[in-house]
Amino acid sequence: MGRYIIRRVLQMIPLFIGISIVIFIVIQAAPGGPETTLLATGRFVSPEILEAYRTRLGLDQPIYVQYFRWLTTALSGDLGYSYKSAQPVLQVIAERLPATIELMLAAYLLAATIALPLGVYSAIHKYSPLDYAGTGLSFLGIAMPVFWFGLILQLVFAVQLGWLPSSGRETVGNTGFIDQLKHLIMPATVLSLLYIAGWSRYMRSSFLGVINSDYVRTARAKGLHERRVMLVHGLKNAAIPVVTIIALDVAGLFSGAVITETIFAWPGIGRLFIQAMYDRDYPLLMGIIMMGSIMVVVFNLFADIINAWLDPRVSYD
After folding, report:
1. Residue 2 lies in a domain
2. 145-192, pLDDT tens digit by residue?
3. Is 130 part of any domain?
Protein backbone atom coordinates (compact mmCIF):
# COMPACT_ATOMS: atom_id res chain seq x y z
CA MET A 1 0.00 0.00 0.00
CA GLY A 2 2.86 2.38 0.78
CA ARG A 3 4.38 1.98 -2.68
CA TYR A 4 0.96 2.45 -4.24
CA ILE A 5 0.36 5.73 -2.39
CA ILE A 6 3.80 7.05 -3.37
CA ARG A 7 3.19 6.08 -6.99
CA ARG A 8 -0.18 7.80 -7.05
CA VAL A 9 1.22 10.95 -5.45
CA LEU A 10 3.96 11.11 -8.09
CA GLN A 11 1.35 10.64 -10.81
CA MET A 12 -0.54 13.62 -9.45
CA ILE A 13 2.24 16.03 -10.43
CA PRO A 14 1.85 15.78 -14.24
CA LEU A 15 -1.90 15.44 -13.77
CA PHE A 16 -2.14 18.75 -11.92
CA ILE A 17 0.06 20.43 -14.51
CA GLY A 18 -2.18 19.14 -17.30
CA ILE A 19 -5.30 20.30 -15.45
CA SER A 20 -3.81 23.73 -14.87
CA ILE A 21 -2.97 24.11 -18.57
CA VAL A 22 -6.51 23.28 -19.64
CA ILE A 23 -8.08 25.53 -17.02
CA PHE A 24 -5.74 28.42 -17.85
CA ILE A 25 -6.53 28.22 -21.56
CA VAL A 26 -10.29 28.01 -20.97
CA ILE A 27 -10.28 30.99 -18.62
CA GLN A 28 -8.19 33.09 -20.98
CA ALA A 29 -10.43 32.14 -23.92
CA ALA A 30 -13.56 33.42 -22.16
CA PRO A 31 -15.02 36.59 -23.70
CA GLY A 32 -14.16 39.87 -22.04
CA GLY A 33 -11.45 40.39 -19.47
CA PRO A 34 -10.63 42.18 -16.22
CA GLU A 35 -10.92 45.50 -18.02
CA THR A 36 -14.68 44.92 -18.36
CA THR A 37 -15.01 45.84 -14.68
CA LEU A 38 -13.80 49.33 -15.58
CA LEU A 39 -16.33 49.63 -18.38
CA ALA A 40 -19.12 48.37 -16.09
CA THR A 41 -18.84 51.52 -13.98
CA GLY A 42 -20.58 53.47 -16.74
CA ARG A 43 -17.83 56.04 -16.97
CA PHE A 44 -15.88 56.70 -20.15
CA VAL A 45 -12.56 54.87 -20.19
CA SER A 46 -10.20 55.61 -23.05
CA PRO A 47 -8.61 52.77 -25.02
CA GLU A 48 -5.20 53.94 -23.80
CA ILE A 49 -6.23 53.43 -20.18
CA LEU A 50 -7.62 49.97 -20.94
CA GLU A 51 -4.41 48.99 -22.73
CA ALA A 52 -2.28 50.29 -19.87
CA TYR A 53 -4.43 48.31 -17.45
CA ARG A 54 -3.92 45.09 -19.42
CA THR A 55 -0.19 45.78 -19.67
CA ARG A 56 0.07 46.27 -15.89
CA LEU A 57 -1.64 42.91 -15.36
CA GLY A 58 0.56 41.21 -17.96
CA LEU A 59 -2.40 40.28 -20.16
CA ASP A 60 -0.76 41.74 -23.26
CA GLN A 61 1.80 38.94 -23.29
CA PRO A 62 1.37 35.61 -25.16
CA ILE A 63 -0.74 33.08 -23.29
CA TYR A 64 2.15 30.63 -22.83
CA VAL A 65 4.23 33.38 -21.20
CA GLN A 66 1.35 34.17 -18.85
CA TYR A 67 0.92 30.50 -17.98
CA PHE A 68 4.58 29.85 -17.20
CA ARG A 69 4.68 32.99 -15.09
CA TRP A 70 1.63 31.76 -13.15
CA LEU A 71 3.06 28.22 -12.84
CA THR A 72 6.39 29.51 -11.54
CA THR A 73 4.78 31.52 -8.79
CA ALA A 74 2.24 28.76 -8.00
CA LEU A 75 4.99 26.19 -7.45
CA SER A 76 6.47 28.52 -4.86
CA GLY A 77 3.14 28.69 -3.03
CA ASP A 78 2.03 32.04 -4.42
CA LEU A 79 -1.15 32.02 -6.54
CA GLY A 80 -0.89 35.70 -7.33
CA TYR A 81 -3.13 38.62 -6.43
CA SER A 82 -6.82 39.11 -7.02
CA TYR A 83 -7.55 41.66 -9.74
CA LYS A 84 -10.61 42.87 -7.84
CA SER A 85 -9.36 43.25 -4.27
CA ALA A 86 -5.58 43.33 -4.87
CA GLN A 87 -5.21 40.81 -2.03
CA PRO A 88 -3.27 37.53 -2.27
CA VAL A 89 -5.45 34.78 -3.76
CA LEU A 90 -4.60 32.38 -0.94
CA GLN A 91 -5.69 34.97 1.61
CA VAL A 92 -9.01 35.59 -0.16
CA ILE A 93 -9.71 31.85 -0.39
CA ALA A 94 -8.68 31.27 3.23
CA GLU A 95 -11.17 33.91 4.39
CA ARG A 96 -14.08 32.15 2.64
CA LEU A 97 -13.00 28.53 3.14
CA PRO A 98 -14.29 28.05 6.74
CA ALA A 99 -17.86 28.90 5.67
CA THR A 100 -17.75 26.37 2.82
CA ILE A 101 -16.24 23.66 5.04
CA GLU A 102 -18.97 24.28 7.61
CA LEU A 103 -21.69 23.94 4.97
CA MET A 104 -20.12 20.86 3.36
CA LEU A 105 -19.62 19.11 6.69
CA ALA A 106 -23.21 19.78 7.77
CA ALA A 107 -24.59 18.54 4.45
CA TYR A 108 -22.28 15.51 4.50
CA LEU A 109 -23.33 14.45 7.99
CA LEU A 110 -27.01 15.08 7.27
CA ALA A 111 -26.90 13.03 4.07
CA ALA A 112 -25.06 10.11 5.69
CA THR A 113 -27.32 10.12 8.77
CA ILE A 114 -30.48 9.89 6.68
CA ALA A 115 -29.40 7.96 3.59
CA LEU A 116 -27.55 4.99 5.11
CA PRO A 117 -30.23 3.89 7.65
CA LEU A 118 -32.91 4.49 5.00
CA GLY A 119 -31.08 2.28 2.52
CA VAL A 120 -30.57 -0.51 5.07
CA TYR A 121 -34.22 -0.41 6.17
CA SER A 122 -35.43 -0.41 2.56
CA ALA A 123 -33.29 -3.46 1.80
CA ILE A 124 -34.42 -5.41 4.87
CA HIS A 125 -38.09 -4.50 4.28
CA LYS A 126 -37.99 -4.87 0.52
CA TYR A 127 -41.17 -3.90 -1.32
CA SER A 128 -42.73 -2.52 1.84
CA PRO A 129 -44.65 0.81 1.77
CA LEU A 130 -41.63 2.60 3.26
CA ASP A 131 -39.38 1.06 0.62
CA TYR A 132 -41.64 2.34 -2.15
CA ALA A 133 -41.82 5.74 -0.44
CA GLY A 134 -38.03 5.88 -0.13
CA THR A 135 -37.61 4.96 -3.79
CA GLY A 136 -40.08 7.63 -4.88
CA LEU A 137 -38.44 10.30 -2.74
CA SER A 138 -35.03 9.30 -4.07
CA PHE A 139 -36.16 9.73 -7.67
CA LEU A 140 -37.72 13.06 -6.72
CA GLY A 141 -34.51 14.21 -5.04
CA ILE A 142 -32.39 13.27 -8.04
CA ALA A 143 -34.72 14.94 -10.53
CA MET A 144 -35.49 18.11 -8.52
CA PRO A 145 -33.44 21.19 -9.53
CA VAL A 146 -31.37 22.40 -6.59
CA PHE A 147 -32.05 26.09 -7.19
CA TRP A 148 -35.83 25.49 -7.35
CA PHE A 149 -35.81 23.48 -4.12
CA GLY A 150 -33.80 26.21 -2.39
CA LEU A 151 -36.22 28.92 -3.51
CA ILE A 152 -39.20 26.86 -2.32
CA LEU A 153 -37.62 26.42 1.12
CA GLN A 154 -36.97 30.16 1.34
CA LEU A 155 -40.55 30.92 0.34
CA VAL A 156 -42.10 28.52 2.86
CA PHE A 157 -39.82 28.64 5.90
CA ALA A 158 -38.43 32.18 5.63
CA VAL A 159 -41.14 34.26 3.95
CA GLN A 160 -44.43 32.58 4.88
CA LEU A 161 -43.66 30.90 8.22
CA GLY A 162 -40.75 33.08 9.32
CA TRP A 163 -39.08 30.19 11.13
CA LEU A 164 -35.66 30.48 9.48
CA PRO A 165 -33.55 33.32 8.03
CA SER A 166 -33.61 33.46 4.26
CA SER A 167 -29.89 34.05 3.63
CA GLY A 168 -26.48 34.72 5.10
CA ARG A 169 -24.41 32.89 7.66
CA GLU A 170 -25.37 34.86 10.75
CA THR A 171 -27.51 37.78 11.83
CA VAL A 172 -25.67 41.08 12.17
CA GLY A 173 -24.91 41.62 15.84
CA ASN A 174 -25.82 38.05 16.77
CA THR A 175 -23.05 35.44 16.57
CA GLY A 176 -24.67 32.84 18.82
CA PHE A 177 -24.71 29.15 18.02
CA ILE A 178 -28.50 28.94 17.66
CA ASP A 179 -28.56 31.81 15.19
CA GLN A 180 -25.81 30.24 13.08
CA LEU A 181 -27.60 26.89 13.20
CA LYS A 182 -30.79 28.46 11.90
CA HIS A 183 -28.88 29.99 9.00
CA LEU A 184 -27.27 26.61 8.25
CA ILE A 185 -30.41 24.44 8.16
CA MET A 186 -31.78 25.34 4.73
CA PRO A 187 -28.46 25.48 2.79
CA ALA A 188 -27.33 22.16 4.29
CA THR A 189 -30.68 20.56 3.46
CA VAL A 190 -30.56 21.73 -0.14
CA LEU A 191 -26.94 20.65 -0.61
CA SER A 192 -27.55 17.21 0.93
CA LEU A 193 -30.73 16.40 -1.01
CA LEU A 194 -29.08 14.85 -4.06
CA TYR A 195 -26.70 12.78 -1.93
CA ILE A 196 -29.46 11.50 0.34
CA ALA A 197 -31.27 10.27 -2.75
CA GLY A 198 -28.22 8.66 -4.33
CA TRP A 199 -26.57 7.17 -1.25
CA SER A 200 -29.79 5.57 0.01
CA ARG A 201 -30.23 3.79 -3.34
CA TYR A 202 -26.60 2.64 -3.37
CA MET A 203 -26.96 1.37 0.20
CA ARG A 204 -30.17 -0.49 -0.60
CA SER A 205 -28.71 -2.13 -3.70
CA SER A 206 -25.49 -3.12 -1.94
CA PHE A 207 -27.28 -4.48 1.10
CA LEU A 208 -29.65 -6.53 -1.04
CA GLY A 209 -26.66 -8.17 -2.69
CA VAL A 210 -25.15 -9.04 0.68
CA ILE A 211 -28.11 -10.41 2.68
CA ASN A 212 -28.61 -13.23 0.18
CA SER A 213 -24.94 -14.28 0.14
CA ASP A 214 -23.61 -17.60 1.43
CA TYR A 215 -21.82 -16.25 4.50
CA VAL A 216 -24.99 -14.50 5.70
CA ARG A 217 -26.96 -17.72 5.35
CA THR A 218 -24.17 -19.52 7.22
CA ALA A 219 -24.35 -16.97 10.04
CA ARG A 220 -28.09 -17.55 10.30
CA ALA A 221 -27.55 -21.32 10.31
CA LYS A 222 -25.21 -20.94 13.30
CA GLY A 223 -28.10 -19.52 15.28
CA LEU A 224 -26.92 -15.90 15.46
CA HIS A 225 -29.53 -13.26 16.19
CA GLU A 226 -30.96 -11.67 13.05
CA ARG A 227 -29.92 -8.17 14.12
CA ARG A 228 -26.33 -9.33 14.63
CA VAL A 229 -26.36 -11.06 11.26
CA MET A 230 -27.57 -7.90 9.52
CA LEU A 231 -25.54 -5.28 11.32
CA VAL A 232 -22.26 -7.16 11.81
CA HIS A 233 -21.97 -9.55 8.88
CA GLY A 234 -24.22 -7.82 6.37
CA LEU A 235 -23.63 -4.13 6.95
CA LYS A 236 -19.83 -4.36 7.11
CA ASN A 237 -19.59 -5.87 3.64
CA ALA A 238 -22.42 -3.86 2.12
CA ALA A 239 -20.77 -0.63 3.25
CA ILE A 240 -17.59 -1.18 1.21
CA PRO A 241 -18.82 0.17 -2.17
CA VAL A 242 -21.03 2.78 -0.50
CA VAL A 243 -18.18 4.23 1.59
CA THR A 244 -16.10 4.47 -1.58
CA ILE A 245 -18.87 6.40 -3.32
CA ILE A 246 -19.33 8.68 -0.31
CA ALA A 247 -15.60 9.48 -0.28
CA LEU A 248 -15.68 10.31 -4.00
CA ASP A 249 -18.70 12.58 -3.53
CA VAL A 250 -16.90 14.88 -1.11
CA ALA A 251 -15.48 16.80 -4.07
CA GLY A 252 -18.97 16.88 -5.58
CA LEU A 253 -20.22 18.63 -2.47
CA PHE A 254 -17.69 21.38 -3.14
CA SER A 255 -18.98 21.98 -6.67
CA GLY A 256 -22.60 21.72 -5.53
CA ALA A 257 -21.95 24.43 -2.97
CA VAL A 258 -21.56 26.95 -5.82
CA ILE A 259 -25.31 26.96 -6.53
CA THR A 260 -26.38 26.56 -2.92
CA GLU A 261 -24.18 29.37 -1.63
CA THR A 262 -25.43 31.67 -4.38
CA ILE A 263 -29.08 31.01 -3.54
CA PHE A 264 -28.65 31.56 0.18
CA ALA A 265 -25.95 34.28 -0.02
CA TRP A 266 -23.66 32.00 1.97
CA PRO A 267 -20.23 33.69 2.22
CA GLY A 268 -18.17 30.74 1.03
CA ILE A 269 -15.98 29.65 -1.86
CA GLY A 270 -18.93 28.92 -4.15
CA ARG A 271 -20.28 32.44 -3.97
CA LEU A 272 -16.75 33.79 -4.32
CA PHE A 273 -16.33 31.73 -7.51
CA ILE A 274 -19.47 33.25 -9.07
CA GLN A 275 -18.29 36.75 -8.19
CA ALA A 276 -14.83 36.03 -9.62
CA MET A 277 -16.44 34.96 -12.91
CA TYR A 278 -18.40 38.20 -13.14
CA ASP A 279 -15.24 40.20 -12.42
CA ARG A 280 -13.07 38.14 -14.80
CA ASP A 281 -10.69 37.74 -11.87
CA TYR A 282 -8.33 35.24 -13.53
CA PRO A 283 -5.93 34.53 -10.63
CA LEU A 284 -8.81 33.99 -8.20
CA LEU A 285 -10.63 31.72 -10.65
CA MET A 286 -7.46 29.67 -11.17
CA GLY A 287 -6.97 29.32 -7.44
CA ILE A 288 -10.54 28.17 -6.76
CA ILE A 289 -10.72 25.73 -9.68
CA MET A 290 -7.31 24.25 -8.89
CA MET A 291 -8.39 23.75 -5.29
CA GLY A 292 -11.47 21.88 -6.50
CA SER A 293 -9.35 19.77 -8.86
CA ILE A 294 -6.97 18.87 -6.04
CA MET A 295 -9.93 17.78 -3.93
CA VAL A 296 -11.18 15.48 -6.69
CA VAL A 297 -7.80 13.79 -7.16
CA VAL A 298 -6.99 13.52 -3.45
CA PHE A 299 -10.37 12.08 -2.51
CA ASN A 300 -10.10 9.56 -5.35
CA LEU A 301 -6.90 8.35 -3.72
CA PHE A 302 -8.58 8.48 -0.31
CA ALA A 303 -11.46 6.33 -1.62
CA ASP A 304 -9.02 3.70 -2.92
CA ILE A 305 -7.27 3.59 0.46
CA ILE A 306 -10.57 3.20 2.32
CA ASN A 307 -11.65 0.47 -0.09
CA ALA A 308 -8.45 -1.50 0.54
CA TRP A 309 -8.76 -0.99 4.31
CA LEU A 310 -12.35 -2.24 4.44
CA ASP A 311 -11.88 -5.11 2.00
CA PRO A 312 -8.76 -7.23 2.65
CA ARG A 313 -9.20 -8.86 -0.75
CA VAL A 314 -8.16 -5.58 -2.42
CA SER A 315 -4.43 -5.15 -2.88
CA TYR A 316 -2.64 -2.40 -4.78
CA ASP A 317 0.92 -3.66 -4.31
Report:
1. no
2. 888 888 898 899 888 888 888 888 777 767 778 888 888 899 999 888
3. yes
